[in-house]
Amino acid sequence: MSVEQHIRQIRLAALDPVLLQVENESAGHNVPPGSETHFKVTLVSDGFSGVARIQRHRQVNRLLAELLAGPVHALALHLYAPEEWREGAGPAESPPCLGGGRRA
Prior knowledge:
With 104 residues, the protein is an alpha+beta fold. The protein has 3 helices and 3 strands. It has helices at 3-11, 53-63, 65-68, and strands at 19-24, 38-44, 74-80. A 3-stranded mixed β-sheet has the order 1-2-3. It is globular and about 40 Å long. 12% of the residues are buried. The model has no long low-confidence stretch (mean pLDDT 84).
């Protein structure tokens, strides 16, 4: 199973998402082709209603702790309660990679 599938199906399914987008952004970074190290997750869940943003991030980080300790190097989280989410008003594009400390 790919890291992306693992994030999507096993780990984040526990949050019963209304919407779940997992984007592998590894290709835009200084990693070998086919890598699964950099991800952006957009997740809308009823479980986030009334929950502070930092608590949402902590909850997702706990669910993904094993992956964050291993293959996942970077994780951008965009977490919303349904009342905060508007279709088409998703997260901003991720900035371009600067090569892990090397400036372009």
